[in-house]
Amino acid sequence: MELQSQVESNAASAAPEDVHVAKVGAEESLPVVPVVRTTKNFYDYTLPELEEILAGLGKEKFRAQQVFKWVYEKRVENFEEMSNVSKAFRAELPNIFHFDLPKVVAELKSKDGTRKWLFDIGDGMTIETVLIPNKERLTLCVSSEVGCNIACRFCFTGKQKLKRRLSAGQIVGQFLHAQDSLSKEDMRITNIVFMGMGEPLDNPDAVFRSIEILHQPNGINLSRKKITVSTSGLVPLMPLIAKAKVRLAVSLNAPNNEIRSFVMPINKKWDVHSLLGACLDYYKETGDRITFEYVLLKNVTDRLEQAKELWDMLKQAGLHNACKVNLIPFNEHPGSGFERPEPASVIAFQNELIRLGAHVLLRKTMGRDIFAACGQLTSKYEGRPERMTV
Ligand code: SF4
Fold first, then answer.
1. What are the b/e assignments for 35-57, b being 16+ CB within 10 Å?
2. What is the SS3 string spanning 172-200?
3. How far apart are CA 148 and CA 159, in angstroms?
4. Which of 31, 120, 196, 202 could form a disulfide with 143 if both were Cys (CB 3.0 to 4.6 A apart)?
5. Residues 181/188, Cβ–Cβ less than 8 Å
6. Which pLDDT score is estimated for 84?
7. Per-residue pLDDT, 16
8. Whose CA is nearest to atom 7 of ligand 1?
9. Domain spanning 103-382: which CATH class is it, in words?
10. How far apart are the CA of 302 and the centre of ligand 1, in A?
């Protein structure tokens, strides 16, 4: 599907009303009757949307704020418990809203502190969410789609074709479940990155709606500067990231057009020059540094001269002082056709970029014991042939 029509179909299906399938009777053989739920999933709506819905019923704005606070601050899902809401209004609310979050299938903890959640979003589909601890930060990496059509060659999720775009509630739900679990240990998520399964800009309506919910001061209250959207380079939609005032990360992964088109076929549609042009626009509008993710693939993107080529490319684009480069040694998986570089090449590549003046971070591989690379746990759970072995 063309991008524009994808966006339009996303917009048209925003915050859909749920269709649930209920079994009649206990016997497996009895017919399955679809039950159409006429109420809305509360988690799909931003506060201004909630205010609008309730205004249509003659309710004041502060009513919406009250309910929003109960749900996101106090994590109450039963309208009856919302004690500062009038009894009559409490009785009306279940006719308008229900609460539906992804279900936790598994929560895994790595020896290195990384955690991973596997969620069931219905119809046998699963998504993954990873928590990455780093010094004082706890960064939650959320998924925006089941599978992904961008098909980056080095990516495990890219081998799993797009099956579904998540709703805003399914994205927010990843945060809520993770935070509920961490709260038991007095831990708070400090940052969110849209870097899990899926290309966030292929699901813009739900992604930016979820950002509004996560940021809302009457609820979760996460600063926009603590939220990062990572894109493979859907150039026409990149201005949405600046508009949402959140951070931009770009999955760059190559020092020139030719190699980028090989490792990331999307580059054939929007080449690296138009991508870097969009990055410059972002920087001019926000003044925020951009993170360039660069996966080091043995003998493909890890050669020393490619560090210089990368730096020259960023310089030419006017971005060398406006970015940092995250180096990610490739996380090997069966069937990828790529290899992880030797540690010495990784260090040499990093040192060369530092020598040239770049702000470089070398990302440690974490959570290998819990299949933390995106898409791996889903594959294991669903029993696909490319499942990983520890
Ligand atoms: S790296 Fe991201 S955009 Fe590329 S295939 Fe994987 S999930 Fe999709």
1. eeeeebbbbbbbbebbbebbeee
2. HHHHHHHHHHHHCCCCCCCEEEECCCCCH
3. 8
4. 196
5. no
6. 94
7. 36
8. 198
9. alpha beta
10. 20
**Residue of 51, 128, 145, 199 marked active site:** 128
Sign of the alpha-carbon dihedral angle for 149, 157, 306, 311: positive
Give me the half-sphere count of Cα atoms (radius 13 Å) on the Cβ side of residue 272. 21
The span from the first CA to the last CA of the chain, in angstroms, equals: 37
Q: Which residues contact 183 (CB under 8 A, 6 or more apart)?
A: none
Do domains 1-100 and 103-382 share one topology? The answer is: no
Whose Cα sits closest to atom 4 in ligand 1?
152
Per-10-residue mean pLDDT, the chain, length 390? 32 35 39 69 98 94 96 96 95 96 96 94 95 94 96 90 96 98 97 97 98 97 98 98 98 98 97 98 98 97 98 98 96 88 97 98 76 57 36
Report the pLDDT value the prediction gives residue 30, as an integer from 0 to 100. 55
User: Which residues line ligand 1 at a C-beta cut-off of 6 Å?
Assistant: 148, 150-152, 155, 157-158, 197-199, 232, 251
CATH architecture, domain defined by 1-100 = Orthogonal Bundle (1.10)
Extents of the domains making up the chain: 1-100, 103-382
Lookup: tokens for 375: 């898409």
User: DSSP string covering 266-284, please?
Assistant: GGGTS-HHHHHHHHHHHHH
At a CB cut-off of 8 Å and minimum separation 6, what does 159 contact?
151, 335, 375, 386
**pTM of full prediction above 0.85:** yes
